[in-house]
Amino acid sequence: MGWDFSTEPEFQEKLDWIDEFVREEVEPLDLLFSGKAFHPLEGTLRTIVDPLKQQVRDRGLWACHLGPELGGQGYGQVKLSLMNEILGRSQWAPIVFGTQAPDTGNAEIIAHYGTDEQKARYLQPLLNGEIFSCYSMTEPQGGSDPALFGTTARRDGEDWVINGWKFFSSNARTAAFLIVMAITDSETDVYRGMSMFLVPTDTPGVEIVRNIGLMGEDRTEEGMHALIHYNDVRVPTESLLGGEGQAFVIAQTRLGGGRVHHAMRTVGMAQRALDMLCERAVSRKTRDGVLADKQSVRDYVADSYIELTQFRLFVLYVAWHIDQTGDYRAVRHDIAAIKVLTPQVLHNVAQRAIQVHGALGVSNEMPLGGLWMVAPIMGLVDGPTEVHRTTVGRQILKRYQPVEGLWPSQHLPTRLAAAKKKYAAFAEAFENEVGNW
Ligand SMILES: Cc1cc2nc3c(=O)[nH]c(=O)nc-3n(C[C@H](O)[C@H](O)[C@H](O)COP(=O)(O)OP(=O)(O)OC[C@H]3O[C@@H](n4cnc5c(N)ncnc54)[C@H](O)[C@@H]3O)c2cc1C
Fold this sequence. Notes:
- Helices cover 50% and strands 14% of the residues.
- By secondary structure, it is α+β, with helices and mostly antiparallel strands.
- It has 4 domains: 9-114, Acyl-CoA dehydrogenase/oxidase, N-terminal domain (Butyryl-Coa Dehydrogenase, subunit A, domain 1); 133-241, Beta Barrel (Butyryl-CoA Dehydrogenase, subunit A, domain 2); 249-397, Butyryl-CoA Dehydrogenase, subunit A, domain 3; 406-437, no CATH class.
- The longest helix has 37 residues, at 247-283.
């Protein structure tokens, strides 16, 4: 496979347009309507946002995450990543471009596994940006480890009846439907015993117990992450997404692309923090110059740039690999690796930017605190860092075989003996040579 770091000029033009459009038209919404992004559009907000969405559509940039076979643009992961890098700067931008998580992943699995009827009922309005969706998987006692899940769905005539608890189901309060993962066969293992259901949020028995907010948000029950009790929730058999027992496979489909998009949006956030760091460094005067003259501040800039560039290239490499092969499983360890890097790089860059801004950095007059707080969130969403780090280690180790005998394959005396044996005919030439490489 060849290597190519260039962007086609036609697509670069689109990226330039997106960049300017997001800065000029969309970022002001983050200031004026913060926290409203995942609410269905009403009144004045619809009057403002609908024309912005139309401009995106007119440019062929709406809902670019789906491939052409699924009714999308088919730009592929590299182009999508470059777009997400820009969209990550703003809370509203993914909404205006129809690429917000978790709806992107949810749309993807309905497109892959849904029946025609399910696509018409759920996918189409989701792609039109008219409704929101929720992915309800994590449980309060079991985190995101399906082996510890307790939510069940039992067959009752033509229906399924769902019972159990789900935790941190994002956007449940504004979503039109929930995708619920439940045990349908407790006799078999989690890989075959769980199924996914499409459940309208207003189905009797869907009880949102609390809408949990994130740290820093006020405690007014206005949070976006629901603790849900599914209490005898009865849905018809047509609510099953994919086949019975397919939940695990569906969940894997959902997360591959999603993690790449999250990572690239985070690149955009970290770049924003680095831009602020640099601007402050060249602006803030000290008694003998500006902050940028200080070695430690230059080190902050250098370390941030180096970490961010490595991370960005790694994410783009993973995206490129997926485009080349279409095989998410082949780059599983690299997707896990960028998932590990995502909180780390954002934390490091945002932390340095805060430090260089002094008191202003920790104040609520800069967006730095908000960016910094995304870092620990990124270390948890779609599974904790430790789990992904384990995946990386496990997958990499699969490439290696144990040596026979006591010494490692690179053990120098053993290799030297083998080398001497191989070139015994020329012994006088290397008699006094001892290599250590
Ligand atoms: C902002 C946000 C939005 C979310 N949205 C959704 C959503 O829409 N739908 C949904 O279903 N879930 C959602 N989640 C839940 C998310 O997937 C879980 O928080 C995550 O999988 C971890 O589960 P937990 O919080 O129960 O932590 P736990 O599973 O209790 O883990 C806590 C800590 O224990 C350690 N740990 C756990 N397991 C292991 C392991 N195997 N190896 C080593 N260490 C381990 C890690 O340090 C980990 O951080 C969201 C979470 C956040 C923060």
